């Protein structure tokens, strides 16, 4: 049935959609559905297909050159058939589809209006993987020759074919490529590289595209966030820029002031959702590598950071919360890492007005979310590794009472995770110890779990530390454990080495907190039945110990700590 151009009605009076409306609808359909619709309706074939602006390829045979000529106005193509992830218990492999590889460049060359191509990936069942990153898997090599070469060789051959496409004029000069990686990108960490494939790409891809190249696995931050990322090559940042400088117009691209603002709006966004019933909490953090790149770009472009408008800086930072579809979460769901705010102000000297960031303080409604991230450290390669400290800080701020005993299994995992974190740096230890003190308070079950995980031994080892944070945190935890007066816990401390460390901490410190906790622990040891010899040793030194306590602390604060 043909529709009347003016009324949009067919001869029988049935309303028919104009070609423009069909084109908009078909933008969201799979390519196979678009083709099926065009076969069923002549108007779609002749009038709607030329108006479609975006298509998605799910399998290689869909990249048909004859069909491509029908799509006049396409500006964006999503290709989900290039990469696939094969996953087993002990390995992950990234496969590169041979047919997609060889069909791609000729197919793309048929779209004169093409502006962007995005590569996605599928799992073994053929389902598209959200937030896919090809470098999650290993690109295996093979000694076989074409067409039976390994996926690493296929990936490199694809990059070279795109290079040839740009050099020959077959691909538009303003084309942006997203989701493409060099298989060696994650394996090259420092120094110059000898990858000729990436060097040819940097010398031939469009200037705008090259200026936004990711480097040596840096694209993971964008991939995990669900944002598009440019080609991740194995060249270092300085190597990419040196190649750009040698190309006509390269110097101007590197000096473009907008590069810094664009980079500032790409902080890494983490989506935390403990279960299907929970609201999503979004945490944005600027990782150290990102901060270094911001500093480098500011230096390269000559941007005076102190002169940037505060409003523009704040608005740009907040763009990091926007997802790939442009959806902005509610303010209560957004939290900008306090550590990142500190780095942006103190390291980069950005004119950040904290109040204008509308940053939400830690909330008890997200206590479960913070704990969820902390518990993830029990998993290998946790995706939340870089915000563990941030979530510890927030959890410590909102957790004022121990977790409910109704969910003891979950609490046990939290306790184990917190004790594990005591083996890390002082920033982890201080926050983990603070949360542990709340979790352990009044709960013999939680204390037993912590002791079984080696809490006492870990704390004793840190008592002699010159780092006051480690010393204070360790003594505070030991004091919390001994409040239950469990003989087994006291006996675990009743050895010459532990007592010597405690006495030394007491004798060498002027800190009220350290002296109070050390004295309380020594008191518990001295009172233990099995610790007769150690108790006698402590009593012999009672006068010196009490003298030290009285010289630093008020007497009324020491009465509870007096040693028998």
What's the SSE blueprint?
Elements: H1 19-26, H2 31-40, H3 42-48, E1 54-57, H4 65-68, E2 76-87, E3 92-96, H5 98-108, E4 116-122, H6 151-167, E5 176-178, H7 196-204, H8 207-211, E6 214-215, H9 220-225, E7 232-233, H10 237-245, H11 250-254, H12 258-264, E8 268-272, E9 281-285, H13 288-301, H14 310-318, E10 334-336, H15 338-346, H16 367-375, H17 388-398, H18 408-421, H19 426-440, H20 444-452, H21 455-462, H22 468-482, H23 487-491, H24 496-508, H25 512-527, H26 532-540, H27 542-552, H28 555-558
Parallel strand pairs: 1-2, 2-4, 4-5, 6-7, 9-10
Antiparallel strand pairs: 2-3, 8-9
Description:
- The protein has 564 residues and is α/β, with parallel strands linked by helices.
- It has 28 helices and ten strands.
- The protein has helices at 19-26, 31-40, 42-48, 65-68, 98-108, 151-167, 196-204, 207-211, 220-225, 237-245, 250-254, 258-264, 288-301, 310-318, 338-346, 367-375, 388-398, 408-421, 426-440, 444-452, 455-462, 468-482, 487-491, 496-508, 512-527, 532-540, 542-552, 555-558; strands at residues 54-57, 76-87, 92-96, 116-122, 176-178, 214-215, 232-233, 268-272, 281-285, 334-336.
- The strands form three sheets. Strands 1, 2, 3, 4 and 5 form a five-stranded mixed sheet that branches. It has a three-stranded mixed sheet with strand order 8-9-10.
- α9 links the parallel β6 and β7.
- α5 (98-108) packs parallel to α6 (151-167) and α12 runs antiparallel to α13 (288-301).
Descriptors for this entry?
single chain; 564 residues; alpha/beta; five-stranded mixed beta sheet; three-stranded mixed beta sheet; 28 helices; 9% strand
